[in-house]
Amino acid sequence: MADAEMDIDQPDAGADAKNGSADTRTNAGATAVRSVEGWIIVVTGVHEEASEEDLHERFGDYGEIKNLHMNLDRRSGYVKGYVLIEYSTLGEARAAIDGANGTKLLDQTVSVDFAFVRPPPGGGQKGRGGGGRGGGPPKGGRGRSKSPGAHEEKEGGRD
Fold first, then answer.
1. What is the pLDDT of residues 14-64, one digit of tens each?
2. In terms of C-beta density within 10 A (0-12 exposed, 13-18 middle, 19 or more buried), how is residue 5 classed?
């Protein structure tokens, strides 16, 4: 493993990602996060008959595509409507987002943004309940009634 070469971003690009610079902000205001191998963008609204060549033509202009993943529907064999594209650097991913978001691909408008994000500060749990499942009360309280038979089983002499 020590012999393997790794592509890494320059130190200033990594520092910007941690500080939440404008380059790492998504359209929704969240902070983009780098995956283990690179910067992954998600392209939604992809036409069902789009091919890998169509996507390489469109997104190859913004930088070298390290990986392109198209999910296909099992029954029809058509694209499910989204594609994941991986770039080595933040600059390439940002250029693809800025350049292709809202453009047409096979007569269909696509949306492009970072795939992995950290939610905006202070906005992660707004409007939701406390902890636990279903947004119930904060941790520590049960928040729902006990099962009817749970109390009777304990008193019935079973341990």
1. 444 444 456 788 877 788 888 888 999 999 999 999 999 999 999 999 999
2. exposed
